[in-house]
Design goal:
about 270 residues, 5 helices
Length: about 270
């Protein structure tokens, strides 16, 4: 027993100190590195004073002018988009139809003015002559009197049901710029045509032999009767009203439907 007590211990003081130093280094070094990284990250996230920014040396007038110019560049663009134009690189041009003003000849300019004049006076006594497409000042109008239609020969070799109904890409145009009265006349005429068309699209009419398509070209009214002018073409996809072979005119009453009809040759010469 005394021999066991007097013998040296198995672990010396030096070994204890060595293990303690190793553990201290093992835990202290990562903690110190993490603390240093955290301080560096916080220093980066701190706001930079205005005096340290290179843009602060610029005069305030230049910054204000640049901001105002950029704001104006964004705010001046129209909300509803540019007006229609023949050339997409010239959106400021006022063009009606397919040719802008800078490319129009005098003859084209006259035709454009005629096609864009949708403000027909309600004081006009009589509408243009039947079939005179070139004399149409617009696609609709109100008159004090609608002359009676001429009698058409009974029977015929065709009907509207056998033709293709189309819409012309160049007529009417500028409908969003029409006066409210004209838009009402046009919309009412189309509505009556669709309401009563089952009663007359199957009628045997003296249509031109080579008729292939038709389109509604004009609506007239005296406040009671609506006169719908239907253009007849020998092509499936015509572009202009002047290409019509004939005009089929229907007088429609809102309550009674079809009152009279006539098929007339188209007068396209000026």
């Amino acid at each position: 027993m005394q021999r066991l007590l007097l013998t040296e211990p198995a672990i010396t003081v030096g070994e204890v100190l060595f293990v303690a130093a190793a553990l201290l280094l093992l835990f202290f070094i990562p903690a110190a590195a993490a603390f240093a990284n955290r301080r560096q990250y916080r220093s980066r996230m701190e706001p930079v004073p205005l005096s340290a920014s290179p843009s602060a040396e610029l005069p305030q007038e230049s910054l204000r002018s640049e901001t105002s110019e950029s704001d104006v560049a964004w705010l001046t663009w129209p909300v509803n988009g540019p007006p229609p134009s023949f050339d997409p690189w010239h959106p400021e041009e006022e063009s009606i139809g397919s040719t802008p003003k800078r490319l129009q000849t005098q003859e084209d300019a006259g035709q454009v003015v005629k096609a864009s004049s949708f403000g027909e006076s309600s004081d006009l006594a009589l509408p243009p002559a039947l079939g005179a497409i070139r004399e149409w000042p617009s696609a609709c109008g109100r008159y004090r009197l609608l002359p009676p239609l001429p009698l058409s020969p009974e029977g015929g070799q065709g009907s509207l049901e056998a033709l293709r109904q189309i819409s012309l890409p160049t007529w009417p145009v500028g409908m969003e710029e029409w006066p409210a009265e004209n838009r009402e006349i046009w919309g009412r005429g189309l509505a009556l045509y669709r309401q009563w068309q089952a009663n007359f699209v199957t009628l045997a009419l003296p249509l031109p032999a080579h008729s292939r398509s038709y389109a509604i070209g004009r609506v007239e009214t005296d406040g009671q009767v609506y006169r719908v002018h239907v253009l007849l073409f020998d092509e499936l996809w015509p572009l202009e009203p002047d290409e019509a072979l004939a005009v089929c005119v229907f007088d429609l009453d809102p309550e009674r439907g079809l009152l009279a009809y006539a098929v007339l040759p188209a007068i396209t010469a000026v």
